[in-house]
């Protein structure tokens, strides 16, 4: 089956300017890209003045299945991904049971294939049951399909265990994706250890809880040579450490979330659990360091850390509610509106951090629009402004601090392996209801 997208806009690789292009999809592959294409056999879709990008890639999501299907399932999570323009997502292992065995990996891949909304790349656990005591069979996990290892949700507290994990991962060519958190500093905290915590008498989580683990792991990884990737980096100290490691030529990479780029603890209006995430929203100075790190290449990619919870869980108050917010359906509009339209980032920089760079980090053959490549594509309306409406989410999660925020840059169509998995018509039907 052929599909022809007519009169779209693409970013020219050389000039970084928008140019008019038609794109012909033949089966799962991009067959042709040109200023004018005619093909009577193809189903034609008019996308005049809409931006066409490679399908977004998110290296950090929580699909919750198996074990927490009341929060999210592989089907609902990947449908949310499609709505947000994502065609590839890497799911974290802190499920129940964790992704620490071959059958769990196989189950996830099978359910993702059945759903058909987006490509799911499982990330295997570093330790059995994520307890930090015994390494998983990483070789078997890799053969089953994991693309990296992580104990995300908890930091690996033992330096000895982390060093052993890095040695094993290095031998297998697997990245170590680290949730950096020293429990002796972070335990019991619910927000950043800053002015907001003091104002409301809440126990804070200091920046050092993250940066101490970043420093430790960089030193361990330097000795071993493993690809070490920092999850959801949030502090100025951590950015500095990653920058120094890169300057030495070390294979250290990092991701940052939309919420850490756009918010700081000063933006929390009151003890509202929708603003509770881990790592927490840090200071304005930290936020500025994150933006600078993203611009200068210290931070490689943007990842959502999509973390759905039930509303009942999130209504338990700032201290008792679980950490996390959803992000798949709002990432691009929020970043485009608040960073690109304000001049902090260029459109080309934003797209690169959500497509080509994450593909390069994990050695994936995606993230580019080119003839002969897989037809993973996102069509975006850069001009229409609409509010973020959690009731319209395809994710089971409604936990976002951005509800009611007006944003531009909504994905209106998503193509995964040449098949249209999202169409703007679904949005408008929901909004009218």
Automatic annotation (TrEMBL):
Residues 50-237 form the Dihydroorotase catalytic domain. Coiled coil: none annotated. The active site is at residue 305. PROSITE patterns: DIHYDROOROTASE_1, DIHYDROOROTASE_2. GO terms for cellular component: cytoplasm. Zn(2+) 2 binds at residues 152, 179, 232. Zn(2+) 1 binds at residues 60, 62, 152, 305. Transmembrane segments: none annotated. This is Dihydroorotase. It comes from Thermoflavimicrobium daqui.
């Amino acid at each position: 089956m052929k599909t022809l997208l007519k009169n779209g806009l693409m970013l020219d690789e050389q000039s970084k300017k928008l140019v008019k292009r038609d794109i012909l999809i033949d089966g799962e592959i991009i067959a042709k890209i040109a200023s004018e294409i005619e093909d009577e056999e193809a189903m034609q879709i008019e996308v005049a003045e809409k931006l066409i990008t490679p399908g977004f890639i998110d290296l950090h999501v929580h699909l919750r299945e198996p074990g927490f299907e009341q929060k999210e399932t592989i089907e609902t999570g990947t449908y949310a991904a499609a709505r947000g323009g994502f065609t590839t997502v890497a799911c974290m292992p802190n499920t129940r049971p964790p992704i620490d065995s071959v059958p769990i990996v196989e189950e996830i891949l099978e359910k993702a294939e059945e759903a058909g909304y987006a490509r799911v790349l499982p990330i295997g656990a570093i330790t059995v049951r994520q307890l930090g005591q015994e390494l998983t069979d990483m070789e078997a996990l890799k053969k089953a399909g994991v693309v990296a290892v992580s104990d995300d949700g908890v930091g690996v507290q033992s330096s000895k265990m982390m060093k052993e994990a890095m040695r094993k991962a290095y031998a297998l060519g697997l990245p170590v994706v680290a949730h950096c958190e020293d429990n002796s500093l972070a335990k019991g905290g619910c927000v950043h250890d800053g002015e907001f915590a003091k104002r409301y008498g809440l126990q804070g989580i200091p920046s050092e809880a993250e940066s101490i683990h970043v420093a430790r792991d960089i030193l361990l990884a330097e000795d071993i040579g493993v690809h070490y990737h920092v999850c959801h980096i949030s502090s100025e100290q951590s950015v500095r450490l990653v920058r120094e490691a890169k300057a030495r030529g070390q294979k250290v990479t990092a991701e940052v979330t939309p919420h850490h780029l756009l918010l700081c603890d000063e933006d929390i209006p009151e003890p509202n659990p929708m603003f509770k995430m881990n790592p927490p929203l840090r200071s304005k100075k930290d936020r500025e360091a994150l933006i600078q790190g993203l611009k200068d290449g210290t931070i490689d990619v943007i990842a959502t850390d999509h973390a759905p919870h039930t509303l009942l869980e999130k209504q338990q108050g700032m201290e008792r509610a679980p950490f996390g917010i959803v992000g798949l359906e709002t990432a691009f509009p929020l970043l485009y509106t608040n960073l690109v339209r304000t001049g902090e980032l260029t459109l080309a920089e934003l797209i690169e951090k959500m497509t080509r760079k994450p593909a390069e980090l994990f050695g994936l053959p995606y993230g580019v629009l080119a003839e002969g490549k897989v037809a993973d594509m996102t069509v975006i309306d850069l001009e229409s402004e609409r509010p973020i409406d959690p009731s319209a989410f395809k994710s089971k999660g409604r936990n976002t601090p951005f509800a009611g925020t007006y944003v531009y840059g909504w994905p209106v169509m998503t193509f995964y392996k040449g098949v249209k998995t999202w169409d703007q018509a679904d949005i408008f039907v929901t909004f009218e209801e």
